């Protein structure tokens, strides 16, 4: 493992994508500020310097690469544990890659892979709202920070160490083939909801049955049940 920290960088995910061949498995790259932070579908993600926990983890382990469909969800569960240790309740995972607290988004996760053409590595990028007292701008769903939930500022350096420990622990469980079904179901934000889903170019109303053991999501649409995988669908709740 290797720890790298930047005061300012364009994107920790981008840095690892450009240098992964020179880095060992479980290289951890963090930053106080990202000038070109991003989420899924190339959406920009910015935060005032030093107010968020922002990092990326490089995964080269073959066992984890084979179970890549679960890596994003397992990473989200590590953030659930982190928030619970900080006294936050009602923490859920919004499939496939967000963490919600009290029904509001507190963390986003971006999972990227490098293939040549076989999958060579995964990069898990995590952005957790920590010390923001307010959020400027307009949002489809208003975010929330750890400070807003607890009324206390957090030491981000210490939080970073805890996040790394919990994330590596959850990934070790995944390598050991642990069954995450019950814990995922207990923290499933979308389970049982009727939501608008963007599938391709079409928006449809679907019913969410829940997260499957393999990390896919089962929905019901037009009277039929369908399993979908990450990247095929986004929800407007």
Describe the 3D structure.
Helices cover 26% and strands 36% of the residues. It is built from six helices and twelve strands. The protein has helices at 12-19, 62-66, 68-85, 146-150, 156-175, 181-186, and strands spanning 2-9, 27-34, 52-59, 91-94, 98-101, 104-115, 119-129, 194-199, 202-211, 217-221, 224-228, 233-236. The strands form two sheets. Strands 1-2-3-7-6-5-4 form a seven-stranded mixed beta sheet, with helices on both faces. The longest helix has 20 residues, at 156-175.
Outline:
With 237 residues, the protein is of the alpha+beta class. It has helices at 12-19, 62-66, 68-85, 146-150, 156-175, 181-186, and strands at 2-9, 27-34, 52-59, 91-94, 98-101, 104-115, 119-129, 194-199, 202-211, 217-221, 224-228, 233-236. Helix 3 (68-85) packs across helix 5.
């Amino acid at each position: 493992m290797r720890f790298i920290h930047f005061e300012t960088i364009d994107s920790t995910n981008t840095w690892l994508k450009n240098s992964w061949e020179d880095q060992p498995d479980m290289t951890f790259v963090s930053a106080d500020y990202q000038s070109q932070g991003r989420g899924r579908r190339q959406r920009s993600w910015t935060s005032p310097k030093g107010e968020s926990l922002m990092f990326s983890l490089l995964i080269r382990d073959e066992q984890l690469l084979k179970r890549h469909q679960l890596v994003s969800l397992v990473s989200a569960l590590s953030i659930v544990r982190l928030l619970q240790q900080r006294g936050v309740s009602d923490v859920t995972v919004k499939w496939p890659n967000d963490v919600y607290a009290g029904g509001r988004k507190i963390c986003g996760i971006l999972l990227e892979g490098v293939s040549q053409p076989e999958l060579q590595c995964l990069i898990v990028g995590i952005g957790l709202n920590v010390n923001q007292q307010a959020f400027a701008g307009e949002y489809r769903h208003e975010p929330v920070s750890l400070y807003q939930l607890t009324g206390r500022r957090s030491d981000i350096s210490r939080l970073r160490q805890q996040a790394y420990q919990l994330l590596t622990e959850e990934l070790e469980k995944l390598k050991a083939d642990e069954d995450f079904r019950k814990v995922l179901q207990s923290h499933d934000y979308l389970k049982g909801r009727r939501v608008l889903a963007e599938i391709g170019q079409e928006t449809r109303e679907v019913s969410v049955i829940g997260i499957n053991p393999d990390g896919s999501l089962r929905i019901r649409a037009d009277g039929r049940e369908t399993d979908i995988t990450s990247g095929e669908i986004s929800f407007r709740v």
